[in-house]
Amino acid sequence: MDFSLSDTERETRNWVRTFVQREIMPLEPLALRRERNHQPGLTSEEMAELRHKARQSGFWGVQTPEEYGGMALSAVMTALIEAELGRSFIPFRFGGYADNILFHANDEQKAEYLLPTIEGDRVSCFAVTEPGAGSDATAIRTTARRDGSDWIINGEKTFITGGNEADFTMVFAITDADKGVNGGVTCFLADRDMGWKSEYIDTMGEWGPAALIFDEVRVPERNVLGEVGQGFALAMQWIGRGRYLLPARAIGACERLIEMAMEHARNRVTFGEPIAERQAIQWMVADSATELEALRWLVLSAAWQVDQGLDSRQAQSMAKLYGGVRANEIVDRMLQIHGGMGYTRELPIERWYRELRLLRIYEGTDEIQRRTISRNLLKGHVSIRGLLG
Ligand SMILES: Cc1cc2nc3c(=O)[nH]c(=O)nc-3n(C[C@H](O)[C@H](O)[C@H](O)COP(=O)(O)OP(=O)(O)OC[C@H]3O[C@@H](n4cnc5c(N)ncnc54)[C@H](O)[C@@H]3O)c2cc1C
After folding, report:
1. What is the tally of structural domains in the chain?
2. Is 67 a catalytic site residue?
C-alpha cells in the first residue's frame, strides 16, 4: 500500500501552498478588519485579481476538462488543493470553474452559459432548496407551466449560495405534478433579467445566501437544461459532484488552527509555565491532531475511489460526516486553548468557528449522511469491512 504523493502531485500541492502563503494569507488582516465593519473581506474585483494571478501561472480550471482550457486534475489532486486553500479563511477558489451539470448543455447553451461561466464573465447559482424542502428535495413545490413555446415559473427557493451575485440560476421546478421526482422535475437556465428576484439572508457566516423569488417568470423552451422531466437526476448529480471537497477544505482549516494553538500554547505562560506543558492542553492537541489525520485519509480515500471509478458514495458521506463533526470539535478546542483571545475578532478563530458550523448542515446534514451510511450498510449495499473487503 503506497500512501505517498507522486512528484507531480507534490509539486502541484506545493505550488498552491506557496500561492496561499504569498498571495492570500497577507490579505487576511485586511479581510478581518473589513468584516468587522460588515463589509466583504475581499471585493469581487480583488478575488478576480487573485484568480488572474493564478491563471498567469497556468492555474485555471482545476477539474475542468482540457478541451475547455482546464487542467482536468484528479479527485485526489483536487482534494489536496482544497486542503491547501482551506488554510486561509478567505473563500478563494481558482477560476475556470463551472458547475458539473452545465456540461450537459447543448451547443447553443454552452456558448451562452457554460463558456462565459468558465471564463468568469457569468455567475451561476444552483437552486433546489425551498422553505418546505431541504433535506427532502423531493418535496419541492416550485412549478413551471407551458405557455406557447415558453415556460412560466412560480415559487420560492431559499438558502441559495451565490444567489445574490448570480446573473443566472439553474432552477428546478415541477413540470408534471403526477410524476413528481420520477420524471416530473425539470431544470431551467433562468437569467436574472427574465424576472426572478433575490433577497439576502443574514447568517452566522460572513457571506449570506439568498432567497430567490419566481413570480410568473417567463423562460424560453431553449433554456431547458437536459431533457424536460429529467431535472431531478441533474440535481442529484450536482449534489454528488464531490462531497469529499467540503471536508477537504476543513483539513486545511484544522491544520492552521492546530498550528496557531500550538504556537500560542508554547508562548502563553500561566502559573510560571507555558500552558503547552499542561496535560489538559496537550490532550486537546493530541486528540485534534489524531482526528485530523483520520479526516485526511477519509477524504483522500474517498477521492481515490472517485478516481478509480468506484462507487464512492459511502466513502464521501463518511468523509463529509466525520469532517463536519470533527472540524467543529477541533475549532472549539483550539479556541479554548487561546482563552479570551480566541473569542475575539482580532484572530480568525471565531470566524472559523462560525464558518465551519455550516459544514454540518449544507449539502446533506450530519443526520442525512448518517441515514445514507446506515442504510447502505443495513441494506447490504456496502460491507462493514470497507473498501478492502
Ligand atoms: C449557507 C447555506 C448555503 C446553502 N446553499 C444552497 C445552495 O446553493 N443551493 C441549494 O439548493 N440549497 C442550499 N442550501 C440548503 C441546504 O442544502 C439545506 O439547508 C440542507 O439540506 C438542510 O435542509 P433544511 O435547512 O431544510 O433542514 P431540514 O431538512 O428541515 O432539517 C432540519 C433538521 O432535521 C434533520 N432531518 C431531516 N430529515 C431527517 C431524517 N430523515 N432523519 C433524521 N433527521 C432528519 C436535519 O438533519 C436537520 O437537523 C444551503 C444552506 C445553507 C445554510
Report:
1. 3
2. no
